[in-house]
Design goal:
By secondary structure, the chain is mainly α. It has 7 helices and 2 strands.
């Protein structure tokens, strides 16, 4: 399947999760160490805009990746998601190289690989938002299967323990864990049933 369609579905699922956010939720801690939900949404929004710029040939412009405060973070996130989906769908985009400065490599990435990075990031960030809000999040099995090889390709090791690392170290998971739970564990999340908003308030 075209990686762009997989990405579109993962992004839409994240938009659906973010639509559940209320102003009082923004200071909740997230599974991303040290980040509130407001921090996470700012990061997710900026990454959408940065990847959109990369798809348009402007990825080297660091300003395109900069996080900015938004009066309405939910609206800003939905707008950024729409923009990146449109940028990925543009004619000829799969023939381009994506410059992704935040990956730390100067050479352009093949478009399909770059979109794959974005895909797995938002598949997992959708879970981050859902976990923060106490909402169940269960991506379609074909999305998890498509993301698994990408998760396995993410290097593990000591670099994940450094401040600012994109992923925490891999955590153990049960052999019978679902494919999505295996992805979460591989990328440093601890799969667990979400607590409800009411339980989190206690």
């Amino acid at each position: 399947m075209d990686m762009r369609e997989l990405d579109r579905r993962a992004v839409q699922a994240s938009v659906d999760m973010v639509a559940e956010v209320r102003p009082g939720d923004l200071e909740r801690p997230t599974p991303c160490a040290g980040w509130t939900l407001a921090d996470l949404l700012a990061h997710m929004t900026a990454q959408h805009l940065g990847f959109a710029a990369a798809a348009e040939g402007r990825g080297a412009d660091l300003d395109a990746w900069r996080e900015r405060p938004a009066p309405d973070p939910v609206w800003a996130y939905a707008a950024a998601a729409e923009r990146v989906t449109a940028a990925f769908a543009a004619e000829g985009v799969l023939d381009r190289g994506f410059v992704l400065p935040q990956v730390g490599v100067d050479a352009p990435f093949p478009a399909a690989h770059a979109i794959g990075f974005h895909f797995i990031d938002y598949l997992v960030h959708g879970w981050d938002v859902a976990r923060t809000l106490g909402i169940a999040y269960d991506p379609d099995p074909d999305l998890a299967e498509a993301a698994w090889p990408i998760a396995l390709a993410v290097p593990d090791g000591e670099y994940r323990e450094r401040p600012g690392a994109a992923f925490a170290p891999t955590v153990p998971t049960a052999p019978e864990a679902s494919r999505f739970d295996q992805i979460l564990a591989r990328l440093g999340r601890t799969p667990a049933a979400p607590r409800s908003r009411e339980q989190r308030a206690r």
